[in-house]
Protein 1
Amino acid sequence: MNQRILTLRDALATHPPRIAYPEGTNPIILSAVRQLADWQAARPVLVADNPTAVKQAAADAGISLDDIEIMTVPHQHNTPPANTTGTPPLTPLTYAAQLLHNGTCDAMVAGIDHPTAAVLRAALKVVGLAPGVRYASSFFVMDMPHFAGGEGGLLIFADCGMNIAPDAAGLAAIAEASALSATRLGWQPRVALLSYSTLGSAGGQSVETIRHALAEVQAHQPELLIDGELQFDAALVPTIGHKKAPTSPVAGQANVLVFPDLNSGNIAYKLAEHLAGGHAYGPILQGFARPISDLSRGSSVDDVIGASLIVGSMAAE
């Protein structure tokens, strides 16, 4: 695990966040929360219909539940939903989202046993978007062990999991949300809007969309270090960035990469994982009122720990 990810662990130990986990019978979740509790980097809350099943799963895996809280989903007829009409029925997932909504917990890590649609539905219907936010999106923190740039070998890739073909306003919202996420992780964001073109080297409708998105972000946040359109190599490789975009404030040193659509973002993060030995933490949802991670159903213990440290750090901010 990247040292910068582990630095988040050390920072959280001074005031560990309460993180809700609605899949508490999963042995990968149990192993991860055990490690987080031992590090004192989080106060895990396992949300379950049946606490006995959680205890049995932990016993079967040889995992102690000391310092790990279990919260039982209340019966619907005894405890009506806290939100207004449209709140889905209480399940461990939706109840965990309620704990997030009402401030009982600071962040939520879910998805290892739920499809993305279910996690997003709980996030949208129960947690809700942050004030002033119109677009939800997602990002991965990519740990690239053979790459020295970005943020100590870490990069934010967005949006690799939600928005299929964002227009200029959507792309601008993704860029702004990703920059805020980077800031919450203690980074100074340097945002590259990626394309097959670098600052006019090619044309096309998608390039125009990126240019309009850039103008919108710069109007909202003129102090943000952002540029586009930039090709991938121009965004990350200093010599190429200097050659292709010598006046750019981010070329060759970007740490936040915003892809033009879901096809390119999703393909890119999987290429980085499987061909370049990268490690993807997330996806982390952004734009919501509270930090949420939507885990892949193939997540490892390290994946869960990394995602937990990221959302915990975002909650601390």
Note: The two ends are 22 Å apart (CA to CA).
Protein 2
Amino acid sequence: MKRFVLVFLIPVLVACSNGGAISSNEQSFIAGNGVATFIPQADRKPAPAVSGPTLDGKNFTAESGKVLVLNVWASWCSPCRAEAPALEELSTSHPEVQFLGVLTRDSLVAARAFVNRFGITYPSLTDDAILLKFHGQLTPNAIPTTLIIDSKGKIAARISGEITYSALEDLIKRV
């Protein structure tokens, strides 16, 4: 009898468990380790044109001749929530630098709530297809990821994982 119960009960329990599954938005995403990579000027590759629709319904096009900090994020991403205040503070303390978020695998409702909660004032693109243009420059399944594009339109630095205020500010100054 005990054997019958075990043979019957184990498959039922396995079928009912979620096996530690994560939400569909979070599947296949990894958090980076926060390591910053600074690219020497001679080794920098051109960044693709950056433009698209934003959360507030406008169209964004990166200004040429300005440094651009591009941050890939999602509202459900814990490191994204942790770095949001530093990104916002840096965006206001460095008006000479453009800041842009790129929303990925998230709903617009959740993204707008995230922006409101953290008081984010810089725009965020809602079409993450732009990430395909950065093939080879971004790890597509690692968020958050932050790129710094120099004033000549070349990728100057990359941080895969959560940024800190001091690390990102140092990279901005070096660019």
Note: The chain has one domain: 24-174.
